[in-house]
Design goal:
- There is one protein chain.
- The protein has 16 helices and 18 strands.
- It is an alpha+beta fold.
- The two termini are about 30 Å apart.
- It binds flavin-adenine dinucleotide.
């Protein structure tokens, strides 16, 4: 063991009866696996935690498959861990009590694209890139873009966002409805394709962000957007992080409808240059993207360029051709893996705080000062238009002292964000790693209210147990 999961998540494994395996094999044939390699792949995510293997993996192809797997597991009191694309970062997928990983990546049908209503319904295993490929000839697109090519079910389950959230919102704003298999095997459809509804409790919003702890999502209905008539992108370097971030704050406060604005610090720029063969200046940098009509894109860009100049931004470089833009944004999307190459063999402990935009400069600058005193390489990137930024603390997984240092820094970053009225996680979710911070953020009574919902919908704690909060107070 190099990097065991946090203490709260070290739990006794539940028995996995032979009768359950026999029943799963009868139902799924070669779509159930107990092979060590398959279980190892499903018992980990992109967090630095050591894997904790499920007892078996079922590859589901339909809502009915998921219902069957959940029914059989419930009959034997065995946990179910929904699995999308495995790209989560907080230990979400570790089978801390054992159980069956239900992999929905084979549920990859586009159910419908309703161009006139600007909606699409997809099976939960469809990835964001697959959906956008299917939309290519419709003039529409789906904007939510976590760095990984995550599944729509996983994105709904983690309430994901990405570089476009500053303009288009997160999964919270963009999921209209879900089909979900609950712990007692009932199949429930939430929401409609209408753009709004006041009909009862909002089960869609409850399930979005539930991290697999309330049910397995099998279908997702999302909003789509017209592809903008004009798009332009730019990069601009700044003498300091504070200058870069203040440019962003003023851009947002002025109401410029910017589509993307990403911060990348000097160390992360070095990593990106090496990884993507670019030659960007190794200084704190903002990546911008503007969407709209030709005239509005020009106007937005001029406004932002003049704000950047007031903060000593230099070398404002434009990328208007689609291939230049893709090169720039692919480089930004690959930043996580580029940063890992700064320290061969390392894993990243990532922070994910989000603060009110007015406190962003203070939070980033204090964090930068804090990190300067640390022996760990800690590049910073962020979706700063939302007040959200990530520190990737690069640790040698064989060095407990490095892990302890990363966790010390992590606690300080989160403490600072909470003091400033922010959250411990803007987009990655709680998983295992941030369970203590959830209590700091919402208070014991707030977490108790969440626990009451979990008890009502999953009284035997079958769905992804040991995540978000402990089942007993
Ligand atoms: C390089 C990189 C960059 C990233 N950038 C971002 C970013 O910018 N923004 C962001 O938000 N995230 C980001 N992430 C994190 C990750 O991509 C998201 O959390 C994503 O939403 C996870 O989707 P997935 O399909 O991989 O889910 P998984 O990792 O498979 O699962 C994540 C959680 O959702 C549950 N789950 C999965 N599928 C279902 C389902 N069908 N029903 C119910 N529960 C389910 C799982 O049980 C688990 O708890 C990044 C990750 C990496 C590796």
């Amino acid at each position: 063991m190099n990097h065991p999961a946090p203490a709260a998540a070290i739990r006794p494994r539940r028995p996995f009866p032979a009768e359950l395996l026999t029943a799963l094999q009868a139902a799924f044939g070669d779509r159930v696996s107990t092979a060590e390699a398959v279980r190892a792949h499903h018992g980990r995510d992109e967090s630095p935690f050591d894997p904790q293997l499920p007892d078996a993996v079922v590859f589901a192809c339909s809502t009915e498959d998921v219902r069957t797997a959940v029914t059989l597991c419930a009959r034997h009191d065995v946990p179910v861990i929904p699995y999308g694309n495995g790209s989560s970062l907080e230990g979400h997928l570790l089978a801390v009590e054992g159980g069956v990983s239900v992999d929905v990546s084979g549920m990859n049908r586009i159910v419908s694209i309703d161009a006139d209503d600007l909606t699409a319904t997809v099976e939960a295993g469809v990835s964001r890139k697959t959906l956008n490929d299917a939309l290519r000839d419709t003039g529409l697109f789906f904007p939510i873009d976590p760095g990984a090519d995550a599944s729509l079910g996983g994105m709904a389950a983690t309430r994901a966002s990405g570089t476009n959230a500053v303009r288009y919102g997160t999964m919270r704003e963009n999921v209209l409805g879900l089909t979900v298999v609950l712990a007692d095997s009932r199949v429930v459809k939430t929401g409609t394709r209408a753009r709004k509804s006041s009909a009862g409790y909002d089960l869609t919003r409850l399930l979005v962000g539930s991290e697999g702890t309330l049910g397995v999502i099998t279908e997702v209905t999302v909003r789509l957007y017209p592809q903008p008539e004009a798009v332009s992108a730019a990069v601009c370097a700044f003498p300091s992080m504070g200058d870069a971030v203040r440019t962003v704050i003023e851009t947002i406060q002025l109401g410029v409808p910017i589509a993307r604005v990403e911060f990348v610090d000097a160390l992360a720029i070095r990593a990106i240059n090496r990884h993507s063969n670019l030659a960007l200046a190794e200084s704190p940098t903002l990546f911008f993207e503007f969407h709209g009509t030709e005239a509005s894109v020009k106007e937005q860009a001029e406004q932002v360029q003049s704000l950047a100049a007031e903060h000593a931004g230099s070398g404002f470089a434009w990328a208007t051709r689609p291939e230049e833009r893709s090169r720039l944004w692919n480089a930004r999307h690959n930043a996580f893996f580029a940063m890992l190459q700064l320290k061969p063999g390392c894993r990243a402990v990532t922070t994910d705080v989000c603060v009110p935009i007015s406190r962003l400069a203070e939070c980033v600058v204090e964090t930068e000062q804090d990190l300067r005193g640390s022996p760990l390489p800690c590049p910073i990137v962020g979706h700063v238009g939302d007040g959200n930024f990530h520190v990737a603390m690069l640790i040698d997984p064989a060095r407990p002292d490095e892990l302890a240092e990363a966790e010390r820094l992590n606690r300080r970053v989160v403490g600072r964000a909470l003091r400033m009225g922010g959250t411990c996680t803007g987009e990655h979710g709680i998983g295992l790693h941030k369970m203590d911070f959830l209590i700091d953020e919402h208070g014991a009574d707030g977490v108790d209210a969440m626990r009451a919902i979990k008890h009502a919908l999953d009284p035997r704690n079958l769905m992804n147990p040991g995540k978000i909060f402990s089942y007993t107070a």
